UniProtKB/TrEMBL annotation:
InterPro entries: Beta-barrel_OMP, OMP/PagP_B-barrel
Segment forming the signal sequence: 1-20
Keywords on record: Signal
Domain of life of the source: Bacteria
Limits of the Outer membrane protein beta-barrel domain: 11-183
Record's protein name: Outer membrane protein beta-barrel domain-containing protein
Length: 212
């Protein structure tokens, strides 16, 4: 009887450890987000489609400590004024991250970490009204930040994670080219430096992990 109780206690203890946050564990994450918003008022229509994709890899180099790499791609298209105006933004990026996990209840963990990333963006805007005009933007953005959230290690092979808090310092450089109906070209360049933070649940995002 004592032996059975001991085995049962060990099994329960193992089940509460979360398995996945142990040294040597690999974690592949992915995410897909697609939204479409459409507003029609009289003869005016505004349609916005947004798609984003994330693929990442992480490695627990010691218990409850993970380093990772994420690659991202996004596409946002805005069509309005009965297709007379189009605005499309594409972005490509990646970031390196570090996360440390803290046990809360059973397989539920809190985490805190930091990251450094780079994003390249390209925007094209066209107007087909009385005079055709094309405006394009290219941007390079560099960011470092801290963030935190909650992770649920659902099983030995799967985990769900959400980001709740973040603070970022970003530097970006943008170049603008504008071509009007008579092929007159205007070029401009500007830079920006920004410090931003997101409060509790203001920057909610989810990740799904496959662990092995």
């Amino acid at each position: 009887m004592k032996k059975q109780l001991l085995v049962t206690a060990m099994a329960v203890g193992i089940s509460l450890c979360g398995f996945a946050q142990t040294k040597g564990t690999n974690a592949v994450s992915f995410g897909v987000n697609s939204t479409t918003n459409k507003v029609t008022v009289n003869n005016y229509e505004n349609k916005v489609k947004n798609n984003s994709f994330t693929l990442g890899y992480g490695y627990f180099f010691k218990d409850n400590n993970k380093i990772g790499l994420d690659l991202t791609y996004g596409r946002n298209k805005n069509t309005y004024n009965n297709n007379m105006n189009n605005d499309e933004l594409k972005s490509y990026g990646g970031n390196l991250s570090y996360q440390r996990y803290f046990p809360l209840v059973k397989t539920l963990f809190a985490y805190a970490g930091g990251k450094a990333g780079y994003t390249y963006g390209k925007n094209n805007s066209q107007s087909f009204t009385t005079s055709t005009q094309t405006t394009s933007y290219t941007s390079n953005q560099y960011a470092v930040g801290a963030y935190g959230g909650i992770t649920w290690f659902v099983s030995k092979r799967f985990a769900l994670e959400t980001s709740l808090l973040s603070a970022d310092i970003t530097y970006s450089k943008t170049e603008q080219n504008e071509v009007n109906f008579n092929s007159y070209v205007t070029k401009s360049e500007y830079t920006s430096f920004n410090l931003s933070s997101q409060g509790f649940i203001n920057n909610l995002g989810f990740k799904i992990y496959i662990l092995f």
